[in-house]
């Protein structure tokens, strides 16, 4: 009797969170899967193809996604952001975390400084980076000018894909450091000091201590950060909006930096009949793409992670 009352009380405590999850997570998720297999869905009449009901199709909407003129560019940009920014940000965050962990004075202040990007609006930061990379008065070109390098058009009209992607990757890596540093630093501070004391007695070189003690003991955190970072990079959108605006590219080259999420928004903004179905299909493609990377990461983690 007491146990059943406790169970009821527990479910009552969970009810608000479960209701919110159902409304804002599970319902949109199932609705997206439903719309992806519906023909020409009209969001106003809640019907399809001029009918008073739903006309189901198999893969027509997915075919429209794959035939989109921006699909190839979206795959390319998303893949580059994932494969370059994630390893770069993890390595950089790990190095900074080790350095911060060895600093005793001002450690709290430095942690706060590095954590600030995590609580700052990404679009606002993107606009700041667009200013930093401005071809005429940006700080980057000013710095390069000291070494005799001619001004480079990073994000403005006429910017090449390579220059724009370089600026975007630098911003993406920097923006992703805060949370990674926080996780790695907490992991470093939880490592038992006896391992380092034993290594010091054996006069083990610092590089070997890092590779044989620090990295293996941090491997659960590294695996977690790797998986979540790949998922976050696959959903890149607000960073691009901040740097390049709604056109997702420099003036005269719209959608040059479109990603999978940009493809979804682009389908929705067209407002044509069936736009919701195409957007839902693109979202499912993104889900499968991300799910594949997550499975690969989990498979690698089983072989590399030490608990």
What does this molecule look like?
By secondary structure, the protein is mainly α. The protein contains 13 helices and two strands; from the N terminus they run H-E-E-H-H-H-H-H-H-H-H-H-H-H-H. Strands 1-2 form a two-stranded antiparallel ribbon. Helix 1 packs across helix 13 (275-304), helix 3 runs antiparallel to helix 10 (206-234) and helix 5 runs parallel beside helix 11. The longest helix is centred in the N-terminal third of the chain and has 35 residues, at 2-36. The chain is globular, with a radius of gyration of 24 Å. The model has no long low-confidence stretch (mean pLDDT 83).
CATH class of the domain at 71-270: Mainly Alpha
Question: By CATH's scheme, which homologous superfamily of the domain at 71-270 applies?
Answer: MetI-like
Helical residues, percent: over 70%
Question: What's the helix count?
Answer: 13
């Amino acid at each position: 009797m007491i146990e059943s009352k406790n169970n009821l009380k527990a479910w009552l405590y969970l009810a608000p969170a479960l209701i919110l999850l159902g409304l804002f997570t599970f319902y949109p998720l199932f609705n997206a899967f439903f719309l992806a297999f519906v023909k020409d869905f009209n969001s106003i009449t809640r019907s399809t193809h001029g009918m008073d009901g739903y006309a189901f199709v198999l893969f027509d909407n997915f075919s429209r996604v794959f035939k989109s003129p921006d699909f190839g560019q979206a795959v390319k940009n998303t893949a580059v952001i994932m494969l370059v920014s994630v390893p770069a940000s993890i390595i950089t965050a790990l190095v900074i975390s080790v350095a911060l962990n060895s600093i005793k004075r001002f450690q709290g202040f430095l942690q706060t400084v590095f954590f600030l990007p995590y609580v700052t609006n990404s679009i606002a930061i993107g606009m700041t980076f667009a200013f930093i990379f401005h071809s005429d008065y940006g700080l980057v070109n000013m710095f390069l000018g000291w070494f005799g390098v001619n001004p480079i058009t990073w994000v403005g009209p006429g910017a090449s894909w390579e220059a724009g992607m370089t600026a975007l990757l630098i911003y993406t890596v920097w923006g992703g450091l805060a949370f990674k540093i926080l996780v790695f630093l907490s992991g470093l501070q939880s490592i038992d000091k006896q391992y380092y004391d034993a290594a010091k007695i054996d006069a083990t070189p610092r590089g070997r201590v890092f590779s044989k003690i620090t990295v293996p003991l941090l491997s659960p955190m590294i695996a977690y950060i790797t998986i979540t970072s790949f998922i976050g990079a696959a959903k890149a959108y607000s960073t691009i909006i901040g740097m390049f605006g709604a056109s997702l590219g420099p003036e005269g080259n719209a959608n040059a930096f479109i990603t999978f999420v940009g493809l979804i928004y682009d389908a929705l903004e067209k407002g044509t009949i069936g736009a919701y179905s195409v957007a839902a299909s693109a979202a499912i493609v993104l889900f499968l793409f991300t799910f594949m990377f997550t499975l690969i990461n989990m498979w690698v983690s089983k072989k590399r992670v030490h608990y």
